[in-house]
Amino acid sequence: MAEIINLRQVRKQKARAQAEKTAEQNRISFGRTKAERKLTEAERDKAARHIDGHKLDRDDEPEPA
What we know:
The protein is mainly α. Helix content is 68%, strand content 0%. The chain is built from two helices and no strands. The protein has helices at residues 7-30, 34-53. The model has no long low-confidence stretch (mean pLDDT 89).
């Protein structure tokens, strides 16, 4: 015979688990010091500049006649 479950309790448990997952992501994103945020931003900017510096610009070439 199958086990009887209370669907209301299951829904609440699922909602609590989702809320905990969201809270964990927020703790990672927003629970950092100003120095850590600036360091992350600087690393992201440096990576973007590095990639942009290695792109080939096709706009500078003269058009074939």
